[in-house]
Amino acid sequence: MAISSPLRYSVIALRYSVLTLTLAAVVGCSNTAVDYQQHADAARTATTQWQYQQQDAVDVTQLTALIAMPELTSLVEQAILQNPSLQQTAIALQMAYAQRGVTTSGRIPQVNAGFNAESDEGDASYKTDVSVSWELDLWQKISDEVAAADMDIASSEATYQGARDALAANIMRSWLQINLQQQLITIETSRLAVLDNNENFVLSRYRSGLGALEELDNARTSSAQTRATLAEQQETLAQNQRNLGLLLGQTTAIAVAHDFPNVLQPLAGLPAQDLGRRPDLQAAYAKISAAQYRTDVAYKALLPSISLSASLTDIANSPSEALLISPAWSLLGQLTAPIFQGGKLRSQIEIAELTTEQMYWAYQETLLTAVNEVENSLGQEQSLKRQQQHLNDALNSAQRSESNYQTKYRQGLVDILDLLTVQQQTFDLQSQLTQATYNRLVNRIDLGLALGLGITTDNAGEAS
After folding, report:
1. What is the Cα–Cα distance from 254 to 128, expressed in whole angstroms?
2. Measured between alpha carbons, how far is 393 from 357 in angstroms, rounded to an integer?
3. Beta 305-316 vs 110-120: how paired, if at all?
4. Which is more confident, 276 or 204?
5. How far is CA 276 from its chain centroid?
6. Which segments of 36-140 does DSSP mark as H helices, in order?
7. pLDDT tens profile 100-146
């Protein structure tokens, strides 16, 4: 039975009304989703100033500028090219670029060609066909997928930058660690020389009948303990040298200067600006953005899709005649919409929304860690400065006391244990002061890294 025109128009209008309501519902749900990027921005700007004030800080923009040593900068550049772990991160970035190409291909019409030959009881037939298909990006679904892929690239780029910065910081720390061990070995060598001298002096007194056997045993015990400590420190130095070579992607040891280099204290500026430079926060923020785009994609999967396809087909008795000389063509437009999939699409939307929320909380965790790292480093700078001052005062007093005890011992006014105690205290304070100096210099590198100071080198091996 034919449908009258008014009724047919009513059915068409009803269909469009249902479609309009569906679109409105989907778009409305998508627009009322929580804007986690806005929440992340608010969280980053919530810290308005750092707790600790600085003195003698220098405004620098590069991590390597903290130590003005060309040879150290050269090692950083070498490591960027040869460090295996960093190269893996660079490859991951290249994979993100390649994945974007896969996603972008959905915007472009797909073209396929085929050739088929058949033979049935001596009768041969040949068929050639060329087909073109294209899905219209009516709801910007593919555009959202591409935007999500762009955010994946941004996250990978930030991760790669963070890996480069961390590698540079580790090389600088390793350099200082070798400085530390060399100086500790020098202190222990000096300690051993003094103890050997004591032992020889006690032995001479003992042979002259002026000293007791216990004094000689005490002197020899201290010398043996120092030799054991010295052997341990020498092996630690060798391990530190090998570790530096590992960071550089090589197995040969690196020669390092004996004295500590001058390490500048980086200036902490506005928290929002400092934190905004950190690659880990940039990567976490990009992951939120990517997840929000994928949430939009999940919502738009509920909408109808429109695809167009066209084909040219030619069938002939010989291959040459089948090469689209007189083809038949067809054009097809297709509208498809999801009706019932057992709640699959709604579950995918829920997963996408939860993933976005998860990325937001990961950002929050990274942000809190970043703030904590900056505050700890600023506090450590002040604490280590005071420690250095007190240790230096204590060392000066111990050196004066040691000189007095040496004179008294030679005069027989104190025994060997008293002298050994004062001497050990002097060398222990030298080691503590050297360790505190090392800790302060390393803390400045940690502060620079916490403030988002990075590296940019001409031959940094950028992924493309």
Report:
1. 67
2. 54
3. unpaired
4. 276
5. 15
6. 36-44, 70-82, 84-104
7. 888 877 777 887 887 777 776 667 777 777 888 887 878 888 889 99
